[in-house]
Amino acid sequence: MKRNSSIINLKGVAFTSSVVIGFLLAIPPLKDTPFSISVFLINALFVCLLSLAAWTVNISLIYLSENYSHLKIGDKVRRLLSYLLNELLLMPITYLCFLYFGNYFPIEQQEGIAFNNHKTVVFIFLLNTIITVIEGSVLQKNKRMMVELENAKLKTQNTEAFYNQLKQQIHPHFLFNSLNILKSLIKREPDIAEDYLIKLSDFLRASIASANENMVTLKEELELCTDYMEMQKIRFKKALQYSFKIPVDIQESGIVPIFSIQLLLENAIKHNSMTNEKPLKISIAYNSGYISVSNNCQLKLTSEASTGVGLKNLSERYKILLGEDITVTETKEEFSVWIKVLTDENSYNRG
To answer: Model's pTM, two decimal places?
Structure first.
């Protein structure tokens, strides 16, 4: 693709520049003679054709150097060949044109356009120099654009890989905590442990169904959250309370990263203590394009060991998706995290 784009760009520039060069270089021979439109047009056409011929030589050399690497044609060798081949090719063409078309000029102008070996060599050299400068500029610009494109593709691939890595961290993190809870319930309350296991199975089934999704509707995320919170209520009973305050239309149209709200719920439960007398109260609400997950602060004296994921994970995912961070607010009474709700599904990759 890179090689083809270089050749295609040069072909378009070759035609346009040849026309411009033809009209510009047709002017000097007229400065000491009476202006004649026919002489001007013939000179312009002649120089334009010579320019196109020179461009053809240069583009052919570029094509050979890029597509036949075994020829080992470097830039310096290619430019040298360009001058030699153009002199050898354009000299006879120029001579034949002067020989057969010189008589079309008025008698007093025929001497001024007569073929001259030295002048023609210099003219072809200057013409090819102009073309070489334009060619180098186009190739350099094309190379810079290709480098930028490759860098952008590489950055996108790295970002996608990093995002997928972050997303894959969530399942082991959640499963590790859930199995620990299940283990403790089996010892203390076998019947409740069975109910917990059923709900865990339902939750994992729903999450696996969305495993290939980066983004889910707010409704789907809240369904996951409901399953998760019901599991936690089996463990904590009345010591844990939660509520959803999100309009139905927002649930249908809103889009969030998968496991984003669930992760915030898990984070609140992980770092706070709760009893029947002092329950942990978690509120999930919607306000002006953002979801807030808030809880009353009842920090544990000894926090559970962290696996390094959680708020940091969610923060990194939001930076990748939106280029902005989540918002955390904290007072002595309340801890809240705000995440943006997306509304235009087509603007973001859900796969």
So the answer is: 0.52
pLDDT digits (tens, 9 = 90+) for 211-221: 567 788 999 89
Query: What DSSP character marks residue 259?
Result: T
Amino acid found at 19? V
- Concatenated DSSP letters of 64-129: HHHH-GGG---HHHHHHHHHHHHHHHHHHHHHHHHHHHGGGS-HHHHTTT---HHHHHHHHHHHHH
pLDDT at 276 over 80: yes
CA distance 344 to 145: 30
> pLDDT of 66-106, one tens digit each?
777 666 677 788 888 888 888 888 888 777 776 666 554 44
- Provide CATH 3.30.565.10 ranges for the chain: 189-347
Q: Quick one: how many helices (H) and strands (E) in the chain?
A: 10, 7
Residue 257, classified by CB atoms within 10 Å of its CB into exposed (0-12), middle (13-18) or buried (19+), is: buried
**DSSP category for residue 342:** B
Do the beta carbons of residue 44 and residue 29 sit within 8 Å?
no
Nearest 5°: CA angle at 228, between 226 and 234? Answer: 100
Average pLDDT, integer, range 100-116: 49
d(CA 261, CA 314): 9
CB–CB of 268/282 below 8 Å? yes
189-347 has which fold? Heat Shock Protein 90 (3.30.565)
What are residue 339's phi and psi, to 5 degrees?
-125, 145
Phi, psi torsion values for 343, nearest 5 degrees = -120, -20
Strands (E), the chain: 215-217, 240-245, 255-257, 280-287, 290-296, 327-330, 334-340
What lies within 8 Å, CB to CB, of 183 at 6+ separation is: none
The stretch 12-25 carries a mean pLDDT of 84
